[in-house]
Amino acid sequence: MQRVMVVDNNPVVLKFMESFLVKNGFSVRTAENGLIALDLLKDYTPDIFFIDLIMPYIKGEMLVSILRDREELSNIRIIILSAVAAEIELDYIAMGADACIAKGPFNTMGKHIINTLNELSDNNGNNIVEQVVGLEDVFKRSITQELMFSKLHTEVVLESISDCLIEISTDFRIVYLNKAALRFFNKKQKSIIATNILNHLDSGWLKMLVEYLDAVKAELPFQPIELNRENECYMLTAKKLNSSKDNTIVLLLRDISLEKQREANLKNKIKDREMMIKEVYHRVKNNLAMVSSIINLQIGESTNDIELHSLNDLRSRIDSISMVHAKLFRGKDLNNIGFDDYIKDLVDNLIDSLACTESSIVADILIPEVSIDFDKAVPLGIIFTELTTNAIKYAFSGKDTGLISITYSEIEDGLKLVFSDNGSGLSVDFAADKAESLGFNLIFSLVMQLQGSISVENKNGAEFTIILPRF
Q1: CATH architecture of the domain formed by 260-468
Q2: Rounded distance, CA 196 to CA 216, Å?
Q3: Whole-prediction pTM value?
Q4: pLDDT means per 10 residues in the chain (471 residues)?
Q5: Contact present, 37 and 175 (Cβ < 8 Å)
Q6: What class, spelled out in words, does domain 161-255 have in CATH?
């Protein structure tokens, strides 16, 4: 008794073929797809295969190629069952098949099956049937032609992309690979189809891969994973496809080794640039410190009160700029400075260096953790240096204690910075736009440079309100 295997994803066709062939004296096994067929071959070796061309998992053409590659199946006869024989030209002989029967009405299809089997058995079974059998029973359908063209177009696109595209079953067996994936595995398609993908991947990836694929299979939330080995780096993404016929997982494996190398090179360049910039900040800071030291020497030698006053003011302005460079040199971000720490350190240093030992001046600074760039830090540092210096020198004259307060708040139009002291206040005829001192002129000029505005009033001491655009 000859043994037959029928591979077709249409259950009606499978039932007809099994019933018809058994009735005609054949032993029959059926399979819904190529994976099941290959599993059945472990304990069942047919003499004849009937194979559908368009199936889930492994397409018919690939299944024929796999079967022809097996030495133990060298004498089998393979007959293609095609539902699209009228719409496309099938070179089934080049595929490795011996005959092709067009799927048509079952009453005539049965006759074609028997006639084809008889023709193949003649001449010691060495002949092939060179024409598609049963074409007269079917007609061309335009919708099928369009679908087949669309399928061909999709296959061309998938074979052309540089990323590895791999489709696997839910038990991780490979059912499709594009050309890029075949190059990645360095194997022929028929030797890797139906095998477990985990058997072909780096052993160091297995634990991560199994966890990832299990999450994809269960349709749990997941992120793409990065797979590394030596100088190679790949990004793996996956998507589960569900249909009434099959469930598969599509994997996209992208080689990002060059991207990683470029990223590493860019990071190194940025790091080198930051080191150079930090060195510049460091040298500027040192040079400013040297200038400040020279001024200190001059202060020590001077006996002129006006000259001392000017030199102290100059030293404070230089120190405020120097402090910006020091913070940039020590900081991680070369573009931003912690505004709160900067102002607090600046005011504390001024109080320590300028306040007389007999008085007790404290600063209450209420600035949240905000960052400021270099271009704004320098003018704001000088502004607060001038305000603090003036308060220390003049606001608390004759007092044992003094309070300097600085607050920061966000308003609709931008930011509000308020500097105030509880000293004696400004003279009643003080006008901000008519101030003649260098310090006040410097303050107002720098506020305008920052595109802001400043107002002054006496409120239990002097109070300066600065409105600025947001940092």
Answers
A1: 2-Layer Sandwich (3.30)
A2: 16
A3: 0.56
A4: 93 94 95 93 94 90 92 91 84 92 92 91 73 86 72 78 92 93 90 92 89 89 86 90 81 87 79 72 74 81 78 78 72 76 88 72 93 87 89 84 94 93 82 69 90 90 93 79
A5: no
A6: alpha beta
